[in-house]
From TrEMBL:
Residues 7-238 form the ABC transporter domain. InterPro entries: AAA+_ATPase, ABC_transporter-like_ATP-bd, ABC_Transporter_VariousFunc, P-loop_NTPase. Keywords: ATP-binding, Nucleotide-binding, Transport. SUPFAM superfamilies: P-loop containing nucleoside triphosphate hydrolases. GO terms for molecular function: ATP binding. The lineage of its organism: Bacteria, Bacillati, Bacillota, Bacilli, Bacillales. This is ABC-type transporter ATP-binding protein EcsA.
Amino acid sequence: MNTAPVLQITGLSGGYSLNKPVLHDIGLQVQPGEMVGLIGLNGAGKSTTMKHILGLMSPHKGEITVQGKTRSSDPEGYHSALTFVPESPLLYEEMTVREHVEFTARAYGVERSDYESRTGQLAALFNMEDKMDTLSSHLSKGMKQKVMIMCAFVARPALYVIDEPFLGLDPLGIRSLLDFMLDLKKSGASILLSSHILSTIENYCDRFIVLHRGKVIAQGTLAEMTEAAGLRGLNLEQLFYELVQGGK
Ligand SMILES: Nc1ncnc2c1ncn2[C@@H]1O[C@H](COP(=O)(O)OP(=O)(O)OP(=O)(O)O)[C@@H](O)[C@H]1O
């Protein structure tokens, strides 16, 4: 069956100044119900790609569509079709955990009953039930990251963009997050996930995109990428090492 991609990036070049692009002709897709791992060394361009998807930066060239919409053709439809977990938590110090989650739910037009059941489920899943009425400034680093995750998951958009979510999470939190993402995927959601923890994401992502110095140097399933590189049998970490060392 030929399905339309939820996220499609075509010929994207972009960066922080016009005369110094960081991304060079990026092309990638994420299909419905797919979890795709975006991997690359520090500075490869993963967060910059995500900032372009979120509309925090404008492409120098190329196009990004989410469910067939661009930011310029349908800004509201585009933005309501995705949520984001940033690499570092960004919270309002004077707001409680519950207020953050409620604020996000309202922004995404989540029904009250859905908000209540999802919040209860997420609080239990991430072991945050006794912190729901705590000010964010009184939370630990890992708990702050959990608030960002709960905010992204209280809405049910078509696409979740998740930037290195595991840092700071305890082992139970990491497992809960991975299992929750698998459930979302089964329900048809699409996930673009960046992480350096390759041994963890190897078993969870359907496909991978390898970014190196702002270019896509490989993409596909692990089997497809190892086959294409003539390196069958390697695990993701071994293949990644070979690809980026070879690209030096
Ligand atoms: N605010 C900024 N202003 C100017 N250049 C930036 C800015 N943020 C990132 N860069 C540059 O853009 C390039 C890509 O950085 P980016 O943050 O996208 O990398 P990344 O793949 O997410 O890395 P990491 O794994 O360290 O998070 C780097 O060369 C970096 O120096």
